[in-house]
């Protein structure tokens, strides 16, 4: 069984599909009632990479600054996932951003064993860079409209 963190790591390192990394952990984060600060940090880390690759250095650096503020609060949870916290902190000070996740040795060994079986992406580089432009936003729009209607009803 693959955990959301394992899926995130494989997508991050094998495909550099930072958008999908965000999606994978966002789903798990939402399912856990947004309780996982470790997932929130990793989501933001993928967002920083996505911005950086698209040439949005300001957006990437804003995400990194927010990560600096959250990292200590999420350190225990990240460490339990197998993240090397001291290396993560160092990686946040390096530009351009590292394309390899800072993992503890046992986690790194497990991920490396899984990489050979991870299917290559069928997306072009251009599709990876601008992936947000290709996704179906209709469920998000529908949910926002439902929430707006509920708020309007509550006001009456």
Automatic annotation (TrEMBL):
Cited InterPro entries: DUF309, TTHA0068_sf
Name by which UniProt lists this protein: DUF309 domain-containing protein
SUPFAM superfamilies named among the record's database cross-references: TTHA0068-like (SSF140663)
Pfam family, one: DUF309
Gene3D superfamilies: TTHA0068-like
Organism per entry: Exiguobacterium alkaliphilum
